[in-house]
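Weekly sync, protein design subgroup
Attendees: M.S., D.O., the rotation student, P.L. (late)

Item 1: inverse folding check
M.S. brought a backbone from last month's batch and wanted to see whether the design step gives back something sensible before we order anything. D.O. pointed out we never logged the input encoding, so this time it goes straight into the notes. Structure tokens as presented (224 positions):
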């Protein structure tokens, strides 16, 4: 009896909803069309600005510099998720504090299975910032584009060696811990220069394995 009553109530509710929709069909279609067109144009413009900014950052700045596609998926997904979430939440009066709180939540997320370098983590923050600005920044599309350009230009200048030579680092597994003694510092530096062919400026010891007579070194070098 209870199930029959519930089914009957549900049926009556659906019938009432259907009748209301049929009675106001023309008005609903008219209003929904205007709303959809308005929201879609704003959304598309902001999405295009965000996508172009991301393309410039990844394809014209990041990839020519590092020749690394490993983090492309991470950067693109983070940017897209941030853009969509903040854009949608902005429709329910998302405050500036809440937006930056969301920025912080996504910003502190890291993949524990991967060793993300400081450079890649910096680019992660940049793609998050681009998505956030493109989604909720107030103003016209020209202003939003200008905000993104303000971020992209300094990144390009700093990564292009126009101001100073950029210093990179690599992890090296070294097979002779005897060379790690302080008195052998110059010999170690010359040995690594000869093996790697880099203009090495500094060496840091990450880990030493006495059982295997090996060590893990972080080598800092300047690109020619």
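Designed sequence read out in the meeting:
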């Amino acid at each position: 009896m209870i199930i029959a009553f519930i089914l009957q109530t549900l049926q009556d509710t659906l019938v009432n909803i259907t009748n209301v929709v049929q009675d106001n069909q023309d008005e609903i279609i008219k209003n929904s069309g205007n709303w959809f067109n308005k929201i879609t144009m704003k959304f598309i413009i902001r999405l295009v600005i965000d996508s172009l900014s991301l393309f410039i950052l990844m394809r014209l700045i990041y990839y020519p510099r590092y020749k690394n596609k490993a983090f492309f998926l991470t950067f693109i997904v983070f940017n897209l998720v941030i853009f969509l979430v903040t854009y949608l939440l902005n429709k329910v009066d998302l405050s500036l504090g809440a937006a930056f709180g969301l920025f912080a939540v996504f910003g502190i997320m890291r993949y524990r299975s991967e060793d993300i370098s400081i450079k890649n983590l910096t680019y992660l923050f940049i793609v998050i910032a681009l998505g956030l600005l493109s989604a909720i920044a107030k103003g016209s599309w020209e202003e939003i584009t200008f905000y993104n350009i303000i971020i992209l230009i300094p990144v390009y200048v700093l990564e292009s060696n126009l101001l100073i030579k950029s210093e990179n680092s690599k992890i090296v597994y070294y097979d002779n811990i005897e060379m790690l003694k302080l008195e052998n510092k110059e010999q170690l530096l010359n040995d690594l220069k000869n093996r790697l062919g880099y203009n090495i400026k500094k060496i840091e010891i990450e880990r030493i394995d006495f059982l295997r007579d090996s060590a893990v070194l972080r080598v800092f070098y300047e690109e020619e």
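Discussion: The longest helix spans residues 25-66. The chain has a mean pLDDT of 75.
Action: P.L. to compare against the previous round before Friday.
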